[in-house]
Amino acid sequence: MKLTFIGNGNMAKALIEGLVSSYEIEVFGRNEASLKALKERVPQITTKVLGELEDMTDKNIILCVKPYSLPELAPKLSGEANALYSVLAGTSIESLATQIKAKKYIRTMPNLGASHLKSMTTITGDECLKEQAIDIFNQIGRSLWLSSENELDIATGVAGSGPAYLALIAEAMADGAVQQGLKRMDAQTLVTGLFEGFAPLLANDNPADIKDGVMSPGGTTAAGYAAMERGAVRNAMMEAVADAYAKAKELKAKN
């Protein structure tokens, strides 16, 4: 099966690297130098600078551009695609259908884990494409089919934006260790190992149970945990998800 990528930014690159071993891939982009660099990095793909009019008839498109660029881009895509898989945050299927012709539509939200085959991708859209969409995005990690676009907008603030939130946590923990006297490289090694070991724990246990299993009465973990509660880390995380959802709805209203 052939997949046609429109866009070659960071998310597109992550997806391409994850999917190239299982699918034939062609990539349309606007920057020739960027496309050349991508081709050198992933030689199995074909690339083309997006022209004024490109025939998308019967293609399986993965639309991977910034939402604000869609009105300028859409008129350049002619014909009726077989399927359109959109990775645009806050852009509804209804809006996509008025701008790009396709027989079927899917909205997805992968994350940057795709380049390591570890994306957590949320999907919604035409039910007839459910199995195919899950099969495509399972190639780059795990996928979850959601029953509505509203649920996908909520999930964007967790799975889509989540790597940035976790990167902040990782950076802060390493900075804390350095502040107390640990070498930067050692601090980074500790944090990396921590995240690697935490994933299987979370896959099998409730977060509250993990916390209770580590926190001894009056111990070091209890002291550190209390500091995070004083700093309102829990509330900040919940607000991050809420604000990301609000932004997704705002984008959808504009698009």
UniProtKB/TrEMBL annotation:
<keyword id="KW-0028">Amino-acid biosynthesis</keyword>
<keyword id="KW-0963">Cytoplasm</keyword>
<dbReference type="Pfam" id="PF14748">
    <property type="entry name" value="P5CR_dimer"/>
</dbReference>
<feature type="binding site">
    <location>
        <begin position="6"/>
        <end position="11"/>
    </location>
    <ligand>
        <name>NADP(+)</name>
    </ligand>
</feature>
<dbReference type="InterPro" id="IPR029036">
    <property type="entry name" value="P5CR_dimer"/>
</dbReference>
<dbReference type="InterPro" id="IPR000304">
    <property type="entry name" value="Pyrroline-COOH_reductase"/>
</dbReference>
<feature type="domain" description="Pyrroline-5-carboxylate reductase dimerisation">
    <location>
        <begin position="149"/>
        <end position="251"/>
    </location>
</feature>
<feature type="domain" description="Pyrroline-5-carboxylate reductase catalytic N-terminal">
    <location>
        <begin position="2"/>
        <end position="79"/>
    </location>
</feature>
<comment type="function">
    <text>Catalyzes the reduction of 1-pyrroline-5-carboxylate (PCA) to L-proline.</text>
</comment>
<dbReference type="GO" id="GO:0055129">
    <property type="term" value="P:L-proline biosynthetic process"/>
</dbReference>
<dbReference type="InterPro" id="IPR036291">
    <property type="entry name" value="NAD(P)-bd_dom_sf"/>
</dbReference>
<keyword id="KW-0560">Oxidoreductase</keyword>
<protein>
    <recommendedName>
        <fullName>Pyrroline-5-carboxylate reductase</fullName>
        <ecNumber>1.5.1.2</ecNumber>
    </recommendedName>
</protein>
<comment type="similarity">
    <text>Belongs to the pyrroline-5-carboxylate reductase family.</text>
</comment>
<dbReference type="InterPro" id="IPR008927">
    <property type="entry name" value="6-PGluconate_DH-like_C_sf"/>
</dbReference>
<dbReference type="GO" id="GO:0005737">
    <property type="term" value="C:cytoplasm"/>
</dbReference>
<comment type="pathway">
    <text>Amino-acid biosynthesis; L-proline biosynthesis; L-proline from L-glutamate 5-semialdehyde: step 1/1.</text>
</comment>
<dbReference type="Pfam" id="PF03807">
    <property type="entry name" value="F420_oxidored"/>
</dbReference>
<dbReference type="GO" id="GO:0004735">
    <property type="term" value="F:pyrroline-5-carboxylate reductase activity"/>
</dbReference>
<dbReference type="InterPro" id="IPR028939">
    <property type="entry name" value="P5C_Rdtase_cat_N"/>
</dbReference>
<keyword id="KW-0641">Proline biosynthesis</keyword>
<keyword id="KW-0521">NADP</keyword>
